[in-house]
Design goal:
binds pyridoxal-5'-phosphate, 12 helices, alpha/beta, single chain, globular, 11 strands, 4-stranded antiparallel beta sheet, 16% strand
Length: 341
Amino acid sequence: MDTNKLVRDNIRRLKPYSSARSEFQGEASVYLDANENPMNAPYNRYPDPLQGELKAKIAKLKGVRPSQIMLGVGSDEPIDLVFRIFCEPRQDNVVAIEPTYGMYRVCADINHVEYRGALLNPDYTLDAGRLLAAADEHTKVVFLCSPNNPAGNLLDRDAMRRVVERFDGMVVIDEAYVDFSSEPSWLTELDHYPNLIVFQTFSKAWGLASVRCGMAFAAEEIIAYFNRVKYPYNLNLLTQQFVSEQLDHAPRMQEWVAGLLARRTVLAAELAAIPWVRKVYPSDANFLLVKVPDANALYEKLVSQGIIVRNRNHISLCTGCLRITVGTEAENNALIRALHA
Ligand SMILES: *Cc1c(COP(=O)(O)O)cnc(C)c1O
C-alpha cells in the first residue's frame, strides 16, 4: 500500500513553515536567529519543535524509533491532524466503531468530513465485516479504540487485524487505556503495517491529564506529515521537561495501575451485588460501564450527593448505562454508600 496516495494533495505539496530552531540544529554559543529576548533563560528560547530529548526517552520505553513518534497537545491534536492530513473536506469520509470516544466525530464535524458510525455488537464486540462494509472508495480512515470508551472492553485482536489488513486506508487504534489492559500494545506491529496509527496518552495511567501530552505512533513517512502540519512549537518547554521527568517514574505508574486494577475488581463486585443493578460490563480500562433501571434518575441522585459519574444513557447501545471511573478506595466507598442509600 502506498500511504502517500492517501494524503490530501495540498498536504503532500505543502512547504512547511521553517522555524529558526529547525534551520539550525546543534550547539552554538551565540543565538541571534529567532528574535528572542536574551534575558530570562531558559524560558526566553523557543523550544525544540520536534521534542528530541523527550522522544528519545519515549522511544526507549515503548520500543519504537523516535522517527515513529509525534507528540501533541493531548490526543486531541493528533486526532484533529488525522482529518487535516488525510480527509478532503466535503468529499472524504471516515468510519468509526460505535459507540466510542466522542472526539473523533467532533473533529470530523469541524473539518467538514462525513463521519460513519459502524455499530458494534450489543456486547460491544467488533464485527469486522460490518465495519468494512460501511467503508467506500472515499473512506480514508477507520477509527478503532481498544480498550474502548465507554464500554471498557478490548476489541478482539484478530477482528482488528482483519480491519488493518483488509482496509486500504489508514487505521487508527486509540490505546488511551492500554496501560490498564491485559493485552499488549499494537506498537509492536508498526513495522508490519504502513497504514497503522496508534494513539496513546499521558492523561490516564500516568496521571497527567492537566499537562496535555498525547502520542501518535506510525511509520516514519506518516509521522513526517504530522510534523509538517502541526504547529511548529506545539509542546512548550515546561511540558517537554516535565513529561521527561515523569517518565523516570514508570515504576510508580505501574504501582498506581496495579492498585487501580485491584480496586476495579472490588468495585465491580460491589456494584454487581446490588440487587437492582442489571449489569456490570467487563472492563480492561480504569472505568466500569454499569446498566441500571433508570440511568437519568440515578445520575441526578448521585449529583445531588456530590458524586459525579458519566451518564451514557443517550449513547448508541448504552441505554440505561452509567460510566463510572475507578477512584480511590474512599471515593469508591462513597459511591457504593450512595447507591445503597
Ligand atoms: C481519555 C481518552 C483520550 C485522552 O485524550 P487526551 O487528549 O490525551 O487527554 C484519548 N482517547 C480516548 C478513547 C480517551 O478515552
